[in-house]
Amino acid sequence: MLANSRSRLWLLAAASAAILGLTACGSVTERSRDALAAVTPYKVEVVQGNFVSSEQVEALKPGMSRQQVREILGTSLLTDVFHNDRWDYVFTIRRQGVEPQQRRLTLFFKGELLERFEGDKMPSEQDFVATLDTRKRLGKVPQLEASEDQLKKFTPGKTAQPAGPDANAPLPASYPPLESKR
Q1: Coil, helix or strand for 7?
Q2: Does the residue 172 lie in any domain?
C-alpha cells in the first residue's frame, strides 16, 4: 500500500512539472525566441571534387598530351566510358554561413591530345584561400618576442629558490636513486 502511494506521488509530481513546463512555453518572449533562433546546429563542411585554380587553367594549352594535363590538374573526378575523349573536373564546397560554391571545367581530347576546354571562371589560389578564411580578426596581434629585460630574468645559472630558512642552502649536486639497491 505504501509503494502504491509513492508511485502516485511521483506521478502527481511528474504531471505537475509537465503542466508547469507547458505553461512556461506560452510565455516565450521575443528576446528568448531570438536567442533560440541564434542557436544553430553544426553543419559539416562538405568538399568534393578537384579544385582547379586560374593558374592551372592558364597552363593548359591545346595539343598537350593526356599525361601533361594530368600532371597539371590531377586525375579528373568524372570519367565516362562512353565519352573517353572528355574529362570533367567538378569542385563543390558547402560550408556553414557561406554560399555553396560549384565550379566545373570540361576538357575535350582528340585521340591523345587536348583539343579544347571550357568551363567556369576559376579563382586564383590566393583568392580561393581568402574565401576559406572566415575567422574574425580580433584586433592587434600580440608581440611574441620577449624584451631584453624579460630575458634577463632567465639567465643561465640562476634558478628560482624557495623563500624561507633554507633559501640560501645549496641545491644538491646529484639526486638519490629512485629505487633502492638491495
Answers
A1: helix
A2: no
